[in-house]
Structures are given as structure tokens and as C-alpha cells.
Amino acid sequence: MKDTVVIDLSRLLPGPFATLCLQGLGARVVKVEDPVGGDFLRHLPPGLGEHGAWFSALNRGKRSVALDLKRAENRDALFALLADADVLVESFRPGVMARLGLDPRALRTRFPRLVIASLTGWGQTGPYAQLPGHDIGFLSIAGLLGHADPTVPRVQWADLAAGGLTAALRITAALLDRSRSGHGAWLDIAMLDGLIGLQQTQFAQLAAGAPPDELLTGGMPAYGLYRCSDGGWVSVAALEPHFLAELRTATSDDSAEGLARLFATAPRDAWLARLGGACVIPVLGLAEVANDPQVATRNLFFDGLAHPPTGPVEGPVPALGEHTAAELARVGYVRA
Predict the structure, then answer these.
(1) pLDDT tens digits, residue range 42-66?
(2) Which range marks the domain in which residue 262 is found?
(3) Same domain, 270 and 236
(4) Looking at the annotation, which residues are catalytic?
(5) Which residue, 148, 211, 231, 262, is the most exposed by fewest CB within 10 angstroms?
């Protein structure tokens, strides 16, 4: 994707993460922001340098163009950018693009090679399409929180995995298809759809007339979490017989109670050397991750920021509108 140009109208988390993933594949991303304030994440604390930490993580290395798309002359500027682009990413509610004079159907006619990705929570159709929403709501409808004691997960799975990463994959596939057909596409990418699709095995259980999986969700003693003597935790995933046999070299009691007693006899960081061959792994706090020897060896961070799963992304965080003049000049657009 080295020569791929992406115009990103999205803001907050899912869309910018999608385009960050495309950057990891080599794409050039031009972020179009409202001149008044720009992306809300620019100002969300905590700060990291001159920008919000979340904004810095998601938008480093991108080009920032400031355009008020409610004004006709600025839409003309956007059209000039799109004429030179391969991909347009937007995350407005269904209908907003049309109200801005940017109906994806009309854009498909005007720019037939353009791949347009409309990334929303609920999708372009259905009774919830116009509802507002956030990650926890999409998780709720997808059944991921539907157990006896639901908790709010640390990671925004709908925004990131089901939304942003799925969008990057579908955009890449659409570009591959375009290389054969010569035609772009309009992609309706819904975070809810992605969350449903991630649960292949769970819905297969239901289709087979069985209850949702319990073995990999705490129902099996050899697949769980245990507290250690220093208050830390280890995860155990001795599912296969040879891993379970390795675990049994340390204890004759592999019940939940027996394993709890075993791991309470030594501190967290002792167990990797003792039982790493049984899939016993220390549970790290977030602040410990970058210094783990496996993580450090893989070069997964840049200036404290994690690379996206698609590849490394480096570069400065753009100031609002920093590249407006340069990008418009690049595509030959001259403002009246």
C-alpha cells in the first residue's frame, strides 16, 4: 500500500485506528478536520507533548488538512483531494454525508475508482441505524456482556477489533479487487457486525444445541487465573494433554483449589521459568508491558506509543491544519 492515499474524515477512536492500521501497511493518510477545534481527541487529557495522548497515538505521521465541509468552497477542496485519493474513510451517522453534499452514492459516480468506507456502530440499515452508540452498547447487543456479572472491559473491542481493524481489512480487500476490476466500492462497515463475526465458536455452540462455551471462560481449572504469593497473578492455559502433564509435574491436584494452593507458594515472576512449558504466564500490569523481554525484542513501541497490529508507524503528530496548503497544492487546487 506504499502509494495508497487515504482521506480520513473520521474522528475519535474507530476511524482513526482504521487509518492508523492502513498506515502500518504503508498508506499515506490525510486527516481532514474541522478548523474549529479539530478532532475532539486533540484536547482529551492526559496530554502527551502538545496534544492529547490518545490523539497522538492514533494520528502520528498523518497529514492534517483543516476544511469546514459545510462551506461549498471547502467541499470543492475536498473533491480535489479525492480526485487524487484511493480511499475515503468516514464515521458519521447514516445520512450525514448526504446532508453535507457528500453522498457516497454520488461520490461513487464522480470518483468510480474510490473506495469509500463508512464505519459506524450499527451500520447503514436497520432499526438502530440512527441511534447514537459507544463501544459498551455494541458489546451489549452482540451478547459479549450477557453473563451473570458483566464488567466493562479495558479494551474497546467494538471500536478497535470489530471496527477499525475490520475496516482496514475490508478496505485492503476492496483495493485488491479494484486492481482487477478497475472499480471502487462503498463499504458499509458496522462494529456490531464485526462483534457478531468474532464469536464464531460461541454461536456454533448454540447452533449445536449446546450452551455457550464454559471451558475457556473459567469452567476448566487448568485454564484460568491464579494469585501468587506476592499478590501478583499468573494465567494458566494447560489445555492439551502434554501441557497438562507438564503442569502435573508440579502438583498432583489440578483442581481449582489445588492450583490455587500451588501458585500461592511462590511469587508471580518465578512461575514462567518453572512452568512456562505448561502455558503458565505472568499477568503483567499495563506499565510493565513495554519492558517485558519478549515485547522489547519485537520492537512494538515507538516513543512509548504502541505500533498498530499491521506494522510500525512513526512520525510527528500534526498540528491542526498544518498541511492544508501543502496538500491542496499537491493536488493542484487553488483557492478562490
Answers:
(1) 999 999 999 999 999 999 999 999 9
(2) 215-302
(3) yes
(4) 134, 159
(5) 148
Would you say residue 158 lies in a domain?
yes
Q: What residues form DSSP beta bridges with 120?
A: 190
Neighbours of 146 (CB within 10 A): 11
Do the beta carbons of residue 66 and residue 35 sit within 8 Å? yes
pLDDT for the residue 146: 81
Within-domain flag for 46: yes
Provide the number of structural domains found in the chain: 2
Strands (E), 121-276: 185-190, 223-227, 233-237
Does the N-terminal peptide bond of residue 46 adopt cis geometry, omega within 30 degrees of 0? yes
Q: Are residues 71 and 97 in the same domain?
A: yes
Is-contact 32 75, C-beta < 8 A? no
Q: Please count the other Cβ atoms lying within 10 Å of the Cβ belonging to residue 114.
A: 21
Query: Alpha-carbon distance 322 to 336, whole Å?
Result: 20
Nearest Cα neighbor of 42 from 313, 293, 320 is 320
CB 91 within 8 A of CB 11: yes
Nearest to 246 by CA among 276, 213, 270, 209: 276
- The DSSP bridge partners found for residue 6 are 29, 87
- Of the candidates 282, 288, 272, the one whose C-alpha atom is nearest the C-alpha of residue 232 is 282
User: Any long-range contacts for 324-329 (C-beta under 8 Å, 24+ apart)?
Assistant: 324/64, 324/65, 324/66, 324/67, 326/63, 327/30, 327/63, 327/65, 327/81, 328/65, 328/77, 328/80, 328/81
- The 10s digit of each residue's pLDDT in 180-214 is 999 999 999 999 999 999 999 999 999 999 888 77
As a whole number of angstroms, the distance between CA 284 and CA 57 comes to 21
With H, G, I as helix, E, B as strand and everything else as coil, classify residue 118.
Answer: strand
